[in-house]
């Protein structure tokens, strides 16, 4: 008897046995002999029954997913010594991991020759992808320490229940009680972001403003839409009947549908941020992830839909953010039915870009911009939020600005000082009592 790829000796039960069980389940299976020295000499066990109980408890409670069905433990005799033989088969729901450590190298082990070793992150991701059938949002998340404050507020606002039962049915948690990538994306710890930028003119030569939206994708969706609304100016024209007609640069339905498509169909396995760019006469939405395999550009225009992220799509549908699958592109086109310029949809192998042209030219004589902040040059979402806060509360402090915008002390102070210099705010008091009001 020799230790090797599929054989391990342990003189007695120890915590290391659990790691080896995990490694065998993740690799090609194997057998652990308890009561045998490292050089293969039978030593025997005082309590073999107790060792079997510990092994099966570990298989069902200490290891996730449960490996009870692929674990067998028996008492065997060798050279007059009583041993315990623990046979572990290769599992079908890899990666298996120690419950207390989670799906990370400290909890996931593989067999390398006669050694049990922590799995690399790339090896863990490969196992996740294999067992999840390449559906990213259904895969187990590498990050398991998640909170859902933003999602809870959003679900509550839309009057949709959000408890453990709903988290399981919506795919936040898998059958083993582990958070999936769906849970990660809707959590406060979501690592994926959206970058927004405003450019001068119709090229990317000169930045006017830029933002990055983070946190739960529900929060990102809300804040990106607010950002776009700030720069979607409303214009008013007086007709021959003396009635005022208000129109926006971009159809609100088109903006909303393009944004929802970006979140629902994005390839979240690519860590790069999605991009939203505002120019003088167009808005671009650039998303990583081309068309889902099996779809063509013609299918897309007809409203045919194959879900890259079925759990995310189902959650957006439950929240009534989308009415039906595959209607986004037709709705965008319908919004431009009578317009001279039409939306463009550019498909590449690894990206997708939606371009919405402006319905109106730059403000001219006879057209008055009535949106209070939207068309103001160099005026961003942070400044707009401060003015909105002042409309409701009268004044604001640096500390309140930090909480409102979720930024730190220094950027908050610089922002308030800049708005004061630009004539938007008046400063009242000094030191700790300093507050700001709208300029008179």
Automatic annotation (TrEMBL):
Which Pfam families is this protein grouped with?
A: HATPase_c_4, SLFN_AlbA_2
Annotated Schlafen AlbA-2 domain residues: 3-119
Q: What is this protein called?
A: RNA-binding domain-containing protein
Source species of the chain? Adlercreutzia shanghongiae
């Amino acid at each position: 008897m020799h230790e090797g790829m599929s054989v391990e000796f342990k003189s007695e039960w120890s915590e290391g046995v659990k790691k080896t069980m995990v490694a065998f389940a993740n690799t090609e299976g194997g057998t652990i002999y308890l009561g045998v020295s490292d050089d293969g000499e039978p030593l025997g066990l005082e309590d073999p029954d107790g060792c079997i109980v510990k092994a099966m408890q570990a298989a069902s409670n200490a290891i996730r997913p449960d490996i009870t069905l692929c674990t067998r433990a028996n008492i065997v005799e060798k050279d007059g010594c009583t041993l315990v033989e623990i046979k572990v088969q290769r599992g079908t729901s890899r990666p298996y991991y120690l419950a207390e450590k989670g799906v990370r190298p400290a909890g996931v082990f593989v067999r390398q020759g006669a050694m049990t070793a922590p799995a690399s992150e790339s090896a863990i991701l490969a196992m996740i992808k294999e067992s999840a059938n390449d559906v990213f949002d259904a895969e187990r998340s590498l990050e398991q320490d998640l909170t859902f404050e933003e999602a809870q507020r959003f679900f509550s606002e839309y009057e949709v229940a959000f408890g453990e039962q709903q988290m399981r049915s919506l795919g936040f948690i898998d059958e083993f009680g582990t958070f999936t990538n769906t849970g990660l994306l809707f959590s406060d710890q979501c690592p994926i972001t959206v970058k927004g930028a405003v450019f001068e003119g119709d090229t990317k030569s000169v930045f006017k403003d830029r933002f990055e939206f983070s946190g739960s994708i529900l929060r990102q969706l809300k804040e990106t839409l607010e950002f776009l609304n700030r720069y979607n100016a409303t214009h008013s024209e007086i007709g021959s009947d003396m009635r005022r007609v208000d129109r926006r640069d971009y159809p609100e339905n088109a903006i909303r549908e393009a944004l929802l498509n970006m979140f629902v169909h994005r390839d979240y396995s690519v860590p790069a941020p999605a991009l939203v760019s505002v120019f003088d006469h167009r808005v671009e939405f650039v998303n990583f992830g081309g068309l889902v395999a099996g779809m063509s550009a013609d299918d897309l225009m007809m409203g045919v839909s194959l879900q890259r992220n079925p759990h995310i799509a189902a959650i957006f549908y439950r929240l009534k953010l989308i009415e039906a699958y595959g209607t986004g592109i037709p709705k965008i086109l319908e919004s431009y039915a009578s317009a001279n310029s039409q939306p463009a949809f550019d498909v590449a192998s690894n990206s997708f870009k939606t371009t919405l042209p402006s319905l109106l030219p730059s403000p001219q004589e006879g057209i008055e911009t009535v949106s209070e902040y939207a068309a103001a040059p160099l005026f961003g979402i942070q400044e707009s939020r401060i003015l909105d806060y002042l409309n409701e509360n009268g004044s604001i402090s640096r500390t309140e600005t930090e909480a409102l915008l979720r930024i730190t002390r220094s950027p908050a102070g610089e922002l308030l000082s800049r708005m004061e210099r630009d004539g938007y705010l008046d400063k009242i008091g000094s030191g700790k009592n300093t507050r700001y009001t709208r300029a008179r």
